[in-house]
Amino acid sequence: MFRKHPDNPIYGGSATGTLFDVTVARQADGTFRMDFSWRKNHTVAVAFSADGEHWTPPQSTLAPDPASGWEDMINRNCVLKIGDTYKMWYTGQARGHSFIGLAESADGISFRRVGKEPVLYPERPWEGASVMNPSVLYENGVFRMWYSAGETYEPNVLAYAESADGAHWRKSPINPIFVNAPQNAFEQDRIGGCQMIPHKTLGYLLFYIGYHDIDTACICCAYSKNGVTQFRRCRQNPLVIPTPGAWDADSCYKPSALYDEKHDLWRVWYNGRNGGAEYVGLAVKEGDFSERDFE
Fold first, then answer.
1. Number of DSSP helices (H) and strands (E) in the chain, helices first
2. Quick one: which of 253, 278, 257, 260 has its CA closest to 34?
3. Does position 221 have pLDDT exceeding 90, yes or no?
4. What is the pLDDT of the chain when averaged over all its residues?
5. Rounded Cα–Cα distance for residues 284 and 295 (Å)
6. Which of 252, 194, 258, 193 is CA-nearest to residue 227?
7. Can you identify the CATH homologous superfamily of domain 3-293?
8. What integer is the mean pLDDT of 67-84?
9. Taking the model in full, what pTM does it have?
10. 3-state SS of 8-58?
11. Which terminus of the chain, N or C, has fewer Cβ atoms within 10 Å?
């Protein structure tokens, strides 16, 4: 359903080392911003592009703080610009656990932490040792977060929380809101890393990772009218799968999608893995999604 870019991977290589779990956003001037995890530095970073295919070199935006006790490494972030302030929700990891923190910036490059403690941490049995991979929208004065939870190496389920200020969150009482469908071989093991996108007719589109097993992943999609309940999976799942012998031969992870209304096409950026190396690829689908595309 999605056609991979012929020049994949479009970003990353031996010089950068592994780049993973991207979040791509279109800026007010029409250019693209990509926030991502930079494994060799244990930081999160940013790059910019005019066309979504050719990107500036990575710039670290927030470094680990081992003194905190919960962020020996940081990764898996998302960034929103609210007024004149950039807000970043990121994953901090230490001692086999993951937490979600908050940082802010005036320029979108240099971020400072908001407080010393996580704003979200694992506390429910189904959350296991980790909460991670925040995907945040700001709608009608409310921050809405979709996040992954469960094991630390790869999470298991998706959950939802709301906040008035982006720092104090109330988890949904019906969590987890989205779990794997074992009858689908491509997600029989678990699901993880998502992005939620408002859609003009469907309500909300959820792009997520489906795991056939712990080491084999693909990209899937579902929709929900309210983004929280009654999800319907895309009939064409999985949308992006590993290509044997290629740079993404083992797994296609963490989708970040944008719809181009002018050209009537969807782009999805993702990190692909072959062995230990992970870089960023791009896939494209002509035409929008409609209700008939879903089960």
1. 0, 20
2. 257
3. yes
4. 97
5. 22
6. 194
7. Glycosyl hydrolase domain; family 43 (2.115.10.20)
8. 97
9. 0.97
10. CCCECCCCCCCEEEEEEEECCCCCEEEEEEEHHHCEEEEEEECCCCCECCC
11. C
